[in-house]
């Protein structure tokens, strides 16, 4: 008679690590006043069809410094497309920011 049965799992166990999606944005320009940043934001929204009011944000860096950035991109191709549009518009010193 069989008194004991042992079952071994011989299948490969797949350990899935959670991959953190990195987000990127483009720093378009830095201003000393919020009003100047707003003027450029509205001009870009009006003249470039790629951007709308939700895709451009103004970030307060400190009391006298405001940044005009694009929203965070999860896909690098979307970031690349926005970068090319801004480069063709005439911006020379665009900075890519990594959000961690």
What does this entry look like structurally?
This protein is an alpha+beta fold and 100 residues long. Helix content is 28%, strand content 27%. The protein is built from two helices and four strands. It has helices at 34-47, 76-89, and strands at residues 23-31, 56-62, 65-70, 95-99. It has a four-stranded antiparallel beta sheet, with helices on one face. Strand 2 and strand 3 (65-70) form a beta hairpin. The longest helix is centred in the middle third of the chain and has 14 residues, at 34-47. The chain is elongated. The chain starts with 22 loop residues before the first strand and ends with a strand.
Short structural description:
This protein is of the alpha+beta class and 100 residues long.
Report how far the terminal alpha carbons are from each other: 62 Å
> Which residue ranges are poorly predicted, with pLDDT under 50 across at least 5 consecutive positions?
none
How are strands sequenced across the largest beta sheet?
A: 2-3-1-4
Q: Would you report the number of β strands?
A: 4
User: H/E element string?
Assistant: EHEEHE
| Contiguous helical run count | 2
Q: Report strand %.
A: 25-35%
Task: Write down the Rg.
Answer: 24 Å
**Sheet of most strands:** 4 strands, antiparallel
How much helix, percentage-wise, in residues? 25-40%
Overall average pLDDT: 88
Overall geometric form: elongated
Structural class assignment: alpha+beta
């Amino acid at each position: 008679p069989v008194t004991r049965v042992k079952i071994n799992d011989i299948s490969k166990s797949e350990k899935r690590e959670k991959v953190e999606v990195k987000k990127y944005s483009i720093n378009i320009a830095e201003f000393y006043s919020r009003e100047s940043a707003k003027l450029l934001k509205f001009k870009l929204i009006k003249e470039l069809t790629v951007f709308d009011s939700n895709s451009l944000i103004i970030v307060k860096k400190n009391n006298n410094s405001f940044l005009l950035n694009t929203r965070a991109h999860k896909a690098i191709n979307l970031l690349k497309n926005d970068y090319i549009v801004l480069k063709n518009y005439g911006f020379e010193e665009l900075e890519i920011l990594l959000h961690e």
